[in-house]
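Q: Start with the shorter request: fold the first protein.
A: Done. Sequence, then structure:
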Amino acid sequence: MEQLAEAVERFGDAALRAKQAGYDGIELHAAHSYLLLGSFLSPIRNHRQDQFGGKKLETRMKLLLEVLANIRQKVGEDFPITLRIAGYERDPGGRTVDETQRMIQPQPFDTLNEAWPLVRSEPGKANLMSPMM
């Protein structure tokens, strides 16, 4: 749990550094399940048995929501946050479009960048797939 709390702080600190460096906003990448935030959102990848995991969308979203809240607290309301997220996972048992719609209401971010679901998972491995399939 300490590592997750540290990760939340690091996301917020990085966004603050971007603001201080003169950037107009940030994009938080949670689109694919081979990255940290995307892997927590995926019911296929997230097998945790604590407050951040399981089959319930609300627990899988917890890390992302904590990261977004930390970023917002550090950068303020006047610094845009874009959330990049896959609309769904192609794999059986993956996150559905309906779950994604529930995730983005209410919006704890300013804009949404929907990414193609590029990863097809198999137990123990991930394979990149062409978005044109």
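Q: Next, the second protein, separately.
A: Sequence, then structure:
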Amino acid sequence: MFWLWEAGNARASVNLQHIAITGIFIYAAFIAPPASGVTARPSRKIAGVERYGVEDAHRLYQRIWGSSFHFGRWEAGVTSIEDAVLCCKMRIGEALALDTHQHALEAGSGLGETARFLANAYDCHVTATNISEMHLHECIARTDKANMSASVTCAYADYHAMPFEDGYFDAYVMQEALVHATDKPRVMAEAFRVLKPGGRMVFTDQTTMVETLSKADCDRIIERHGSPDLFDAAAFERAAEQAGFHILANQDWSSHMARHFAELVLCLESDYAALARDIDPVVIDWNLDTWRFARDKACDGAMGWVFIAAEKPA
């Protein structure tokens, strides 16, 4: 949920484990030099952390957030961040209504946890796409380790211009990815294009109520997201409808996001000393400040979280 990208209009059928796209420009929320052996690409860097490699931020997220960098649903009985995140994946899977042997596309797949969950739970095939080369390489490694390479394809792709044929997929999923798009209507149009008639799109994303925020707060969120606009739930729904989708559900999950950020802050604060032994304190402090900001704004109702399910008319 931390990367956004732009790419050319190359389109091809998805029958390869790795798809190379040229002309891609990466915005990395935490920055920087790619991992060894990965081709460097231009990146825009966030002030305050541009001197620090992505490895520190990546380790911080795995230590605090777990293996899936997404918000979670804190339903009854849920007491851990990882269980809350899993609960969210379960609700997404239910909304996608996948059948055995169908093919789903995940945009902004991170380390591929959602893709592997869906492939395992529904006995379907999932193409997990990303533009973070480090995340893509780790997604491939984790998928291989789980012996799921036959059901999960890891592909380098840009959701503004997907390299797939029209009407190729049965389902399309995103988690906290669209918020980073430089052109959200274009992303929605691409989702509509690559789906088969009757296919479903399900996504969750952060919402922003601009009218309740100061200009400084809005600028801070824009810088964080790397996106020129801030959408509330109604704007996300309109963009989907304008792309041609029929809305099946639009649910406010904001209370879960507020709880999630509160839990992240609590975990980081309580484990700060241990984290600082092998993670740069500047990276820790920047994220702690960002998570506190998000927690407070979510509690105030200025930021939220939406779940949207939509269908491409048959």
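Q: Describe the second briefly.
A: Residues 77 and 83 are 10 Å apart (CA to CA). The longest helix spans residues 281-300.
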